[in-house]
Amino acid sequence: MQAIGARWRLFGLVAGAIITLSACAHHHDSETPSDEGINAYPANYKTDILGAIHVYLEDPTGIRDGAISEPTQKAVGNATRYVACLRFNARKSGREYAGAKEMMAVFLAGHFDHFVENAGEQCAGVSYTPFPELGKLKR
What we know:
The chain contains three helices and six strands. The protein has one domain. By secondary structure, it is an alpha+beta fold.
């Protein structure tokens, strides 16, 4: 009877590993012809960024000087992705501010995927527009 239980536990571990690996499979850096739609324009990029930055920052309240660029395709690693550049000044602790920060939001298949910090060189020369919604985030 213990042998059957051990087999089921092993089956569960193997099935879990397969599911986990298949969920991560779409996060590769090389493009292939089967990647249709991977570079879909992120129509809701501002909403996606607001949701992600809310989780990304320790204190998302009171962000100052929020600015954003329109999504454009840029090289990210070995691939080309839509990215939007962000510039803002977030709180470090309490009422103290950390200073201006510039980073990129990277999109995959039309949705937010991840942030890239210290994106000064990649965001050089982009046109920023005010992004006051950043300053209205709540905890």
